[in-house]
Design brief:
307 residues, 12 helices, Mito_Metabolite_Transporter, membrane, Mitochondrial carrier fold, 0% strand, mainly alpha, repeat, globular, mitochondrion inner membrane
Length: 307
């Protein structure tokens, strides 16, 4: 028995602890991708909050006094009004979130694909298995990462609050975690978790399954080989499908997470995800559910390339 143990110690870490290595590598790749694409995420969140009709219930205007801004004007506005570095406001909890979410998602997906479901005889992973595996992996990863996602969304809106003359809610990341925990308890850290995991399930279903399917199709039915061109086309298609499926849940998630709360930590604008959905559609129209679609799509494509 001593010989195999000695030989095992000489193996690379990736072979000795494959799951742990996969988690760490996914987390590192996600951190790099997060830093590079975070301005798109911030822009997306600001777009999702524009024209929030439910604010009328608190005595405000159903529409914002400022005109609606698109993706480019929103990003330029942040730079001009708040400063260039504010494009990365909230990036610290975002990195925390991606280390947990991306690592947990990929490890879960790989485990389900290789161990639970397995590949077919021709080594192809069937579409229905990709759908189930992708959704389950997204749900697990997002549920674990919800507290960091909550802090990220709220910190992304701090710059806008300052411009509106409202007091800032947090002094920093750790103060945000502590304040949310003190006001709402452990449950408060999981505010918005329902639409959050719904979004994760839909995004992963679209992302992972479309990517695998498109790549497999291109390699088998076109002159393209398994190279950067195939990877880019697959990323473009998977990001589009993921954004179409996941953006409505993302809008609802962001609004629930950012809404003002009472002293007990209960939301003042929305009673539930369904209530948020109804108010958005009735007050702003169906397409309000797709606010922030373009930066969301671009970010998914860029993250896929960086990973």
């Amino acid at each position: 028995m001593s010989v195999p143990e000695d030989e095992e110690r000489l193996l690379p870490l990736a072979q000795r602890w494959p799951r742990a290595s996969k988690f760490l590598l996914s987390g590192c790749a996600a951190t790099v991708a997060e830093l590079a694409t975070f301005p798109l995420d911030l822009t997306k969140t600001r777009l999702q909050m524009q024209g929030e009709a439910a604010l009328a219930r608190l005595g405000g205007s159903a529409r914002e006094s400022a005109p609606y801004r698109g993706m480019v004007r929103t990003a330029l506005g942040i730079v001009q009004e708040e400063g260039f570095l504010k494009l990365w406001q909230g990036v610290t909890p975002a990195i925390y979130r991606h280390v947990v979410y991306s690592g947990g998602r990929m490890v879960t997906y790989e485990h389900l694909r290789e161990v639970v479901f397995g590949k077919s005889e021709d080594k192809h992973y069937p579409l229905w298995k990709s759908v189930i595996g992708g959704m389950m992996a997204g749900v697990v990863g997002q549920f674990l990462a919800n507290p960091t996602d909550l802090v990220k969304v709220q910190m992304q809106m701090e710059g806008k609050r300052k411009l509106e003359g409202k007091p800032l809610r947090y002094r920093g990341v750790h103060h945000a975690f502590a304040k949310i925990l003190a006001e709402g308890g452990i449950r408060g850290l999981w505010a918005g978790w329902v639409p959050n995991i719904q979004r994760a399930a839909l995004v992963n279903m679209g992302d992972l399954t479309t990517y695998d399917t498109v790549k497999h199709y291109l390699v088998l039915n076109t002159p393209l080989e398994d190279n950067i061109m195939t990877h880019s086309l697959s990323s473009l298609c998977s990001g589009l499908v993921a954004s179409i499926l996941g953006t409505p849940a993302d809008v609802i998630k962001s609004r629930i997470m950012n809404q003002p709360r009472d002293k007990q930590g209960r939301g003042l604008l929305y009673k539930s995800s369904t209530d948020c959905l109804i108010q958005a559609v009735q007050g702003e129209g169906f397409m309000s559910l797709y606010k922030g679609f373009l930066p969301s799509w671009l970010r998914m494509v860029d993250e896929k390339k960086l990973n």
